[in-house]
Design brief:
Isopropylmalate Dehydrogenase, Thiol Ester Dehydrase, Chain A, alpha/beta, 6-stranded mixed β-sheet
Length: 472
């Protein structure tokens, strides 16, 4: 048997092969995804079709399909079966008699009503009924029928998967702050568009009472250029970015603010003040950074650490990095987070320090030196996030394929991993520094106001958790 004959074929019926009375039918059940896909393709975002809240107050009481979604089923039938390949649409006259709701099963039928020999046109009666036998769409369509036989392998179409928008995932992340009051936050040198917009957006979303620390005239001028209102903001005037970092850290050390947000200054400039032995915000825990990622293709929030602060952490530092991330997971209501200790391979190799550290960390967790999470490693990235990959390699682990936290070997691998997920996988990224006296929103200077506000939501959760722990 040839390769072509083994494939599923699509074949037409020519003008001469079709007779008056010939018909064809297909059946299709409407899914919610069909409505969403049609809206994406057509750009028709009429709230009757895509906004459940609005639809509940409409005459239909629920979202309904676009009428043309049902009409397209006729096009499907005519183009693929009767007459099939080579058919050219000429005219259609359709009446839309009933709405189509999610779960409705439609049967569409086209019947040859009349043939025109001089130009090979065919007029088809068209009828669409639902599962109750009720007429939904009726009318007629005229086409030019093919005159030559066409028999071709069916083309395999690409798979299309709908994912929630980044805006929807952003709103979901902000929901973790529901019922939490705003916190006092110092925003360090908010002297570019995105850092000032991020602070003001967080203010407007009820997350923070901002103290803007920087050159006041410059901040006011930027706000004026943006048409932004600084109402509700406290302004602390300092001459430059280094002075802003020093002043903001002092505010946090004195308890006047509960969190910091990095503005338009370099990370090293802020963090050098944070880690200063005499005047900084050190605690008994090593300071580390966590990216909280909402990745459309992963079923749970994913935390990556450390991708921003510790360059090449040793084993002792990794203990604190892991514990910081586990503690954050608890605050985010993940009761027993699964921690995957990443390396290039999933076996211990003396020539690969990351694998030795992973093995040691697992044993330290067994001995209670790391608390509150389930650790496993070394695990390669595919085994950490894919149960199928782990199964193929024969890895039996409660962490493999279900990781909540990824501990990366060093800052380079972590930063590249986080940025790849953000820019290639459309992940929503929020970043936070842990282990200091206050949480620190430490975003890239290239990050949007939305990313900064998402990161602020995490700081709010941490601050309220600390308030609760201090309560008598």
């Amino acid at each position: 048997m040839s390769e072509t004959t083994a494939l599923e074929l699509i074949e037409n019926r020519t003008f001469d092969e079709i007779h008056v009375g010939d018909s064809a039918s297909l059946t299709r059940t409407l899914r919610a995804e069909d409505i969403q896909m049609f809206a994406v393709i057509s750009g028709d975002i009429n709230p009757a079709h895509v906004d459940p809240e609005y639809a509940r107050s409409s005459e239909f009481r629920e979202v309904v399909a676009h009428g043309m979604w049902g009409a397209l089923l006729f096009s499907n039938l005519l183009g693929a079966e009767l007459p099939g390949p080579g058919t050219i649409y000429v005219d259609q006259r359709l009446r839309f008699e009933r709405s189509i709701r999610v779960g409705d099963t439609l049967t569409v039928t086209v019947t040859c009503q009349r043939k025109f020999e001089h130009n090979h046109h065919i007029l088809f009666d068209c009828l669409c009924t639902n599962q109750e036998g009720e007429r939904v769409i009726a009318g007629a369509i005229e086409v030019i029928a093919p005159t030559t036989k066409i028999r071709r392998p069916k083309v395999a179409l690409p798979e299309i998967h709908l994912t929630t928008t980044k805006t929807a995932r952003y709103e979901h992340l902000l929901s973790i702050t529901r019922d939490l009051s705003p916190i006092r936050m110092a925003v360090v040198h908010p002297c570019d568009v995105e850092s000032l917009k991020g602070a003001l957006l967080a203010r407007d979303r009820g997350l923070i009472h901002p103290t803007l620390v920087g050159p006041v005239l410059r901040i006011r001028k930027l706000a004026e250029e943006l048409g932004a209102d600084l109402a509700g903001c406290t302004l602390l005037d300092v001459p430059h970015s280094h002075a802003a970092a020093e002043a903001a850290v002092a505010l946090a050390r004195e308890g006047q603010v509960e969190a910091l947000m990095k503005g338009s200054l370099h990370t090293d400039e802020l963090m050098s003040e944070v880690v200063a032995k005499e005047t900084g915000l050190r605690t008994g825990r090593r300071i580390s950074h966590v990216f909280l990622m909402d990745v459309p293709t992963y079923p749970r929030p994913l935390m990556i650490t450390d991708a921003a602060v510790n360059v090449a952490p040793d084993l002792v530092t990794k203990v604190d990095i892991v514990q910081n991330a586990i503690d954050l997971a608890h605050m985010l209501r993940i009761p027993e987070p699964k921690v995957a200790l990443l390396a290039a391979v999933e076996t211990v190799n003396p020539k690969m320090p990351a694998t030795l550290d992973a093995a040691a960390l697992c044993k330290m967790a067994d001995r209670g030196q790391i608390k509150g999470g389930v650790l496993d490693g070394p695990l390669a990235f595919d085994n950490a996030i894919s149960t199928a990959a782990a199964r193929t390699k024969g890895i039996k682990s409660v962490v493999a394929g279900q990781a909540d936290i990824l501990l990366v070997p060093d800052i380079e691998s972590g930063n590249m991993l986080a940025k790849q997920l953000e820019y290639l996988a459309d992940a929503l990224a929020a970043g936070i520094v842990l282990g200091a006296r206050v949480p620190i929103v430490l975003t890239s200077r290239a990050d949007s106001a939305m990313t900064r506000t998402a990161s602020t939501a995490i700081a709010v959760v941490i601050s309220h958790a600390r308030r609760a722990n201090r309560a008598p």
